[in-house]
Write a structure and sequence with these properties.
Helix content: 55-70%
Shape: globular
Largest sheet: none
Radius of gyration: 15 Å
Structural class: mainly alpha
Order of helices and strands: HHHHHHHH
């Protein structure tokens, strides 16, 4: 499927602006890593919410992400183009569910999430290869987010992070 529009044209549309992580996914080096940075800001902004409300935001970001990522991939003519980073944003937000926000927790979740997203251990690698469309783009990062979430709560329960 050929490229229908350039990234410069696409970012002018709100759907693609969000898919590109507010433009961070268009950076030439490490778009996934830079694309995760807006998620830190979003987590911090939504951190005053109670856990149920925060989870509502995360579910919304994840569900809308299926549409956003799928629409941008279709417009670009490329499945899971590196510039599409809304999946990283949603995955990182998942990693921070019920985690007290501090610079240490934000940093640790960022590092762990990026490791899982880059290395893609099983089942993340399998999902990345086998599931297509917007759901496929989102799914590997959702799983990376949940694995990070479990590790974050283990670290918290061991008292290795300030609460």
């Amino acid at each position: 499927m050929p490229l229908k529009k350039s990234k410069r044209e696409l970012i002018k549309h709100p759907v693609h602006f969000f898919s590109f992580g507010f433009g961070t996914g268009l950076l030439p080096k490490a778009p996934g890593t830079f694309g995760t940075l807006p998620a830190i800001v979003l987590v911090w902004l939504f951190s005053p919410l109670d856990v149920a409300a925060y989870m509502g935001v995360v579910v919304f970001a994840t569900i809308i992400g299926i549409y956003l990522c799928g629409a941008t991939a279709k417009a670009m003519g490329e499945h899971d183009a590196p510039a599409i980073v809304w999946d990283e944003i949603a995955g990182y937000m998942i990693a921070m569910i019920a985690v007290p926000v501090s610079w240490q927790s934000l940093l640790l979740a960022f590092v762990l999430f990026r490791i899982f997203d880059i290395i893609k251990p099983w089942p993340i690698s399998w999902l990345d290869k086998k599931v297509d469309g917007g759901f496929g783009i989102m799914l590997d990062d959702i799983v990376a987010g949940f694995i990070t979430l479990v590790l974050m709560h283990i670290v918290l329960s061991l008292g290795w992070l300030p609460m």
